[in-house]
C-alpha cells in the first residue's frame, strides 16, 4: 500500500490526532487514506476531515504488515561518533510533512557528553514548525526512543524550544526541493 491508498480499519485502533497530539481511537470500519508511511508510523486522513498518526505496531489495522523492528540502529563498528546520532534523527519524520526533522530544521542543537565507563548522555534541543503544535511530545518521544537505543547511550534529554522561532529558512536545500519551494 502506498501513500494515497485507501483502507478501512480492520479493527478499532488507538491513534494520535494531528496536530493536537490528543490520543484517541478510530472504530473498526473507519475509511482512511494513507497520507504518508514512514515504516514505524502512518499518517492517515479520514473522510470527516481529520488527520491521525497510527503507530507501526497497529499497521495491520490498515492492511499492512507491522514492522519487525523499530527504525534501525546503525550497526557501525567504528567508535561512537556524533554522526550516528544525526543519522538516527534523520529517521524521525514530521507526521504532516514528509520530511525528516533534521532536514526540516527542527533540531537546534545536539550535545553529547561523556559519562563514566564509555557511556554517554545526549541533550537535544528541537522545535516545532508552529508553537501551538500538539505533536511536540510525540516527536520528542520518537527522538528519545531512537537515540536511547544507540550503544553506549545511557541518558537522553530532549527539550522542545521555541526560541528562536522556526521558519522555512532552517530547512535544508533537499527539503525545500522535495516540498517544491
Oligomer: single chain
Total number of beta strands: 9
- Class by helix and strand content? alpha+beta
CATH fold annotation of the largest domain: GMP Synthetase, Chain A, domain 3
Number of domains: 2
* Spatial strand order of the main sheet: 1-4-5-6-2-3
- CATH second-level architecture of the largest domain: 2-Layer Sandwich
CATH class category label of the largest domain? Alpha Beta
Q: What's the pLDDT, averaged over the residues?
A: 89
The shape is: globular
Number of separate helices: 3
Major pleated sheet: 6 strands, antiparallel
Strand content: 25-35%
- Helical content (DSSP H or I, runs of 4+): 10-25%
Helices and strands in order, then pairings?
Blueprint: E1 6-8, E2 13-18, E3 23-26, E4 31-37, E5 41-46, E6 51-55, H1 82-89, E7 107-114, E8 120-126, H2 136-148, E9 153-160, H3 173-179
Description of the structure:
The protein is an alpha+beta fold. It has two domains: 6-62, SH3 Domains (SH3 type barrels), CATH 2.30.30.40; 82-179, Fe-S cluster assembly (FSCA) (GMP Synthetase, Chain A, domain 3, 2-Layer Sandwich). The chain is 15% helix and 30% strand. Helix 2 links the parallel strand 8 (120-126) and strand 9. The two termini are 28 Å apart. 29% of the residues are buried. The model has no long low-confidence stretch (mean pLDDT 89).
